[in-house]
Amino acid sequence: MSFGPNPWQQTNWDWRAAGNFIGGGAGSGLIMFTALAGVEGTAAAVLLLVGLALVGLGLACVWLELGRPLRALHVFFNPNTSWMTREAIAATVLFPVGLAAAVAAHLGVGGAAWPAALLAAVFVYCQSRMLQAARGITAWHEPLAVALLVGTSLAEGAGLYWLTQPWHGRGGTTLALLFGALLLLRAAIWVVYRQRLGDRLAARAKAALDRAARVLLIGGTAVPLALLLAAAGSGAGPGWLAALAGALAVLGGAYMKFTLITRAGHNRGFVLREMPVRGARPFSG
Known about the structure:
The protein is mainly alpha-helical. It has 10 helices and no strands. The longest helix has 32 residues.
C-alpha cells in the first residue's frame, strides 16, 4: 500500500529536486566563502562564476522535474506564502548581481563579492526553509534542518574553494582553520539534528540517515580534517592534500542531501478516527 497509516516514501521530489539542493547549496556556499576569503581579481571572478553556474545547474534540475516546464513562471506568484517563490526571487536577483560582481572583481574593484555573497545567503536560507516547511515529512520538518542545510552549504563552499586552491593559490592558515571549523560545525549540527529526530523516523528513513551519517561524519569530516592536519604538518603548503579534503567535504555533503531528499523523505502516515460510511452522518467528535 502506497498510503495509509504507515509512513511511505514521498515520490514528488526525486534526484532532480535533490540536485537543486546540492548544486544550489554548494554554489551559494562557494560565493559566500569567496567573499569571506577576501579573494580579488580574476580568481574571485572565476570562483563567483563557478558558484553561479552550480546554482543555475541546480535550478535547471528543478526545471526538468516540472511536468510542464513552460509554466515555471508560475513559481513567482506566491511570495507571501511560498518559500519556493522566495527562493526563485532570490535567484533572479542573485544572477545579475553575481555577474556584475564577477566583472567588478576582474576589473580590480575591492570587496566586489560581498553583495553576491549576501544574496547567496538569502537564496540558501529560502531553499532550506522550503524543505523545512514540509509539515508531513518528519526528517524535513525538524526545525534544525534549516541550520543543517545552511551549515552544509558553507562547508561545501569552503570545500570547493580548497578543491580549486592549487589553481588560484589563495590559502593560508586562517582559511584552513575556517574550513576545519565549518566541517566541525556541520558535523555538530548533524549530530544534534539526528538526536532530535530520535525514533520518530520510519524504519527505512532511519536506516538511510544512519548510512548518510557514516559518509558525512567519516568520509566528509574526519578524513578531510586529517588531510588538513597532514598538509599543515608537511611544511610544503596545502597543495593537493587540502584539495582532496575539499573534494571529500563536498561529496559528503552532497550524499547527505541526496539521501535526505530521496530516501529519508517519508510521510508520517495518517489515522482515520472513523471510517466513512455511505449514507451515514460524518463523525463530528
